[in-house]
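Example S7 (C-alpha cells).
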C-alpha cells in the first residue's frame, strides 16, 4: 500500500509538472505570436501614415513646380522621405552609400527602397531601379488630375535588424521570466504531490482500519475542499459502523434477555411438575401456554422487523379510506379500552384516502393502542384525531400521563428500548411495539414523530401521503 501511494505521489508530481510546462509553452508561443503580429501591425500603420505624408509633400511640390524636374536635384528624393519620416524614427538610410539590394537589413520605416515614384504614365522617376511588379500604388492628384503615382511594398514579416532585435529582446525577456518560474513550479508541484499523497495515504489507512473492524479511526477535516468533505464522510461512516456494532451487540443482549425470562419460567414450571411440586392441571398448563404465546409473539415481532430491514415486508396495497379503517378498529376496541380504565376520544375525518395495506394498518393501530394502554396510568384517556393537511393524512395519537422525558423521545422507536431500566414486564411489553409501528409507517412512505401531549402524556404525529389512484400493489 505504501509503495502504491508513493507511486501516486510521483505521478501527481509528474502530472503537475507537465501541466506547468505545457502552460508555460503555450504562454510563450502565444505571446511571441502576439508580439510578432502586433509589431507588424504597428509598422503597417506607420507606413500608411508615412504614405499620406509623402503624397501630400509631393502634391504640394508638384503644384509649385508643375513638374517632377525638381527631383533631379541631388538628395531631393531623400529629403522628401526624411521629411515624411521625421528625425525621431531612427537613422535615415542614404541610398548613395548602399547597394540596391533587397537583402540589406534596414529599418523599414526609414528604408527608401520601399517607395518608388512614378509619373502619370507609370514611368519610374525616383526610387529603386527595379521595383517589384506587385507594388501597390497610390495616385498623386492635383486639382483633380493624376500627376503621378507613389508605389510602396507592404511588409509581411519582420526583416530588418532593428525589428529582429526588438522582437528577440522581448522574447528573451519572456523566456527568462518563464525559466525563473520553473523552480517555483517544481516546488509547487512537489508540495501539492506530497500534500495530496499524504491525504490519500491517510484515507487509505482509514479504510483499511474500517475493513479490519477498527471503527474508532477519525480523519482531520480542516477546510471546505472535496478531500475534507470526503474525510468527513469517512468519519461519518466510521461512526455509523461503530454505532451499528454497538447496537447489534446491545440488540443481541436484549433479545437474549427477552427470551431467557419466559424460557426460565417454562423450565421452572416443567421441572416443578416433573418433581411433583406442582400438579399438572389446567391452571398450570394455562400458565405454560401464556409463556409460549409470549415467546411466539416475540419471535413473530422479531421476524417482522427482520423483514422490514431486508425490505421483504410485502403486502397488497390498495386505495383505502384510512378514516373508516381507523374508526372501525377503535370502535371494536372501545369496550375493552373502557374495561382497562381508559376513555377513548375519537375525532376522525372521513373520506381521507391513502395507498396502503389493510392488514398492516390494522396492525399499526393495534400496536399504538396496546402501547398507550401499557404505558398510561389508569384511569386515563386516549385521544385519536385524523385530518387532511398539506397533501397528507395526519393522525395524532395522544394519551394522558405519565409523560416521556425529552431525552427519551427520540429513542422510543429503538428496538427493545423501554423507559424502565429494570425491564419489568408488568410495566410494558417487550419493547418492540413502537419499532414495529415505525416500520409499518415507513412501509407506507409515512413519517412518525413523537411529541408531548396536552393530555400530559405522549403524542404521536403520523403522516401518510394522500392518494388519488384507484389501486396498487407493493
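Recovered sequence:
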Amino acid at each position: 500500500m505504501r509503495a502504491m501511494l508513493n507511486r501516486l505521489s510521483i505521478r501527481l508530481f509528474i502530472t503537475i509538472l507537465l501541466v506547468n510546462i505545457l502552460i508555460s509553452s503555450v504562454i510563450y508561443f502565444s505571446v511571441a505570436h502576439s508580439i510578432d503580429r502586433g509589431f507588424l501591425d504597428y509598422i503597417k500603420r506607420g507606413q500608411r501614415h508615412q504614405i499620406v505624408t509623402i503624397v501630400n509633400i509631393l502634391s504640394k511640390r508638384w503644384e509649385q513646380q508643375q513638374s517632377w524636374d525638381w527631383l533631379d536635384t541631388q538628395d531631393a528624393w531623400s529629403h522628401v522621405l526624411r521629411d515624411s519620416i521625421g528625425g525621431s524614427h531612427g537613422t535615415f538610410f542614404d541610398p548613395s552609400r548602399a547597394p540596391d539590394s533587397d537583402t540589406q537589413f534596414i529599418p523599414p520605416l526609414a528604408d527608401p527602397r520601399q517607395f518608388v515614384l512614378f509619373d502619370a504614365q507609370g514611368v519610374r522617376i525616383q526610387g529603386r531601379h527595379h521595383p517589384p511588379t506587385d507594388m501597390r500604388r497610390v495616385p498623386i492628384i492635383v486639382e483633380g488630375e493624376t500627376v503621378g503615382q507613389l508605389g510602396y511594398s507592404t511588409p509581411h514579416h519582420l526583416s530588418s535588424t532593428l525589428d529582429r532585435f526588438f522582437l528577440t529582446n522581448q522574447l528573451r525577456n519572456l523566456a527568462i521570466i518563464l525559466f525563473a518560474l520553473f523552480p517555483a513550479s517544481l516546488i509547487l508541484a512537489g508540495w501539492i504531490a506530497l500534500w495530496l499523497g499524504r491525504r490519500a495515504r491517510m484515507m487509505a489507512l482509514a479504510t483499511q482500519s474500517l475493513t479490519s473492524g477498527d471503527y474508532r479511526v477519525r480523519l482531520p477535516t480542516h477546510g471546505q475542499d472535496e478531500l475534507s468533505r470526503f474525510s468527513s464522510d469517512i468519519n461519518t461512516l466510521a461512526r455509523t459502523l461503530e454505532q451499528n456494532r454497538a447496537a447489534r451487540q446491545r440488540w443481541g443482549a436484549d433479545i437474549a434477555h427477552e427470551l431467557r425470562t419466559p424460557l426460565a419460567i417454562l423450565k421452572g414450571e416443567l421441572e416443578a411438575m416433573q418433581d411433583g411440586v406442582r400438579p399438572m392441571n389446567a391452571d398450570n398448563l394455562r400458565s405454560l401456554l401464556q409463556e409460549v404465546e409470549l415467546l411466539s409473539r416475540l419471535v413473530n415481532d422479531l421476524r417482522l422487523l427482520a423483514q422490514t430491514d431486508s425490505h421483504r415486508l410485502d403486502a397488497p396495497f390498495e386505495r383505502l379510506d384510512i378514516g373508516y379503517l381507523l374508526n372501525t378498529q377503535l370502535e371494536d376496541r372501545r369496550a375493552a379500552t373502557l374495561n382497562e380504565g381508559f376513555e377513548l376520544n375519537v375525532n376522525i375525518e372521513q373520506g381521507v384516502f391513502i395507498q396502503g395495506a389493510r392488514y398492516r394498518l390494522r396492525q399499526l393501530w393495534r400496536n399504538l393502542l396496546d402501547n398507550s394502554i401499557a404505558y398510561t396510568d389508569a384511569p386515563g384517556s386516549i385521544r385519536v384525531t385524523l385530518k387532511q393537511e398539506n397533501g397528507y393524512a395526519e393522525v395524532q395519537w395522544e394519551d394522558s400521563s405519565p409523560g416521556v422525558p425529552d431525552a427519551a423521545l427520540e429513542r422510543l422507536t429503538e428496538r427493545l428500548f423501554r423507559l424502565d431500566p429494570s425491564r419489568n414486564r408488568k410495566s410494558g411489553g417487550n419493547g418492540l411495539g413502537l419499532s414495529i409501528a415505525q416500520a409499518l409507517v415507513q412501509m407506507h412512505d409515512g413519517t412518525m414523530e413523537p411529541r408531548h401531549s396536552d393530555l400530559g402524556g405522549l403524542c404521536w404525529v403520523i403522516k401518510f401521503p394522500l392518494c388519488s389512484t384507484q389501486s396498487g400493489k407493493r
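Notes on this example. The longest helix spans residues 2-65.
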